[in-house]
Amino acid sequence: MERTLSIVQTSLMPLLTALFQVTIPLTILSFSFGLIIAVITALARISHQRILNTIFYLYVWIFRGTPLLVQLFIVFFGLPSVGIQFEAFPAAVLTLSLNTGAYASETIRSALLAIPNGQYESAASLGMSRWQILRRILAPQAFKIAVPPLSNTLISLVKDTSLASSITIVEIFMTGQRIAARTYEPLLLYCLVALYYLVVCTVLGFFQQRLEQRMARY
Fold it and tell me: Tell me: the pLDDT tens digits for 54-68?
C-alpha cells in the first residue's frame, strides 16, 4: 500500500506536466486549425464550383475513411521517403488538424444546409451580398446548430492525442507508459492517465452544457 501511494505521489506531477505542456497545447492547436480547415471545406462543399467541390470531397472522403493512426504514420514515417519531413509535434498537429477538419466540415456543412433557403432568398432580395448573408444570417444560426457536435469533436480530439505517442511525442499517455515501465505498475499508471483524461473531458463537457444553455436563451 505504501509503495502504491508513493508511486501515485511521484507520478502525479510528471503526468500533469505532460498534460499541460503537450496534450492540451496539441489539442488546442489541432482544433483551432481544424476548425479553419472545416469552415473552408464546408463552404467549398456547398459551392457550385464543381472542381473545388470534388477536391474537398476527396479530402473528406480520405480522412474520414482511414484510421487516424495510419494517417499519423504516413505523415511522420512515410512522407520522409519522398523528401517531406516533419518534426514529431508539427506532424501530429498537421495530421490531427486535417482529421478534425474533415469531420468538423461535415458538421458545419450540415448546419448551413439546415437553414431554410427562404432566409437566403429574403436577404438577397434586400440587396445583401453573399458574404453579408453568410456573416449576418447564415453563420450565427449555423454556429448555434453546430456547437453540440463540434464540442463532441473537441472532446474526442483530447482522447485522440494519445495516438501521438506512436510518433514519439511524449504526451501524457507516453509519460504514463514510461513510468509504468520503470515501476512495473501498468494498471495503476494507466488508470491514473485515464483519470486525467476523464477530468479534462468532464470539464469540457461542463462548459459545453453551459454554452448550449446560454445559446438556448436567445
Answer: 999 999 999 999 999
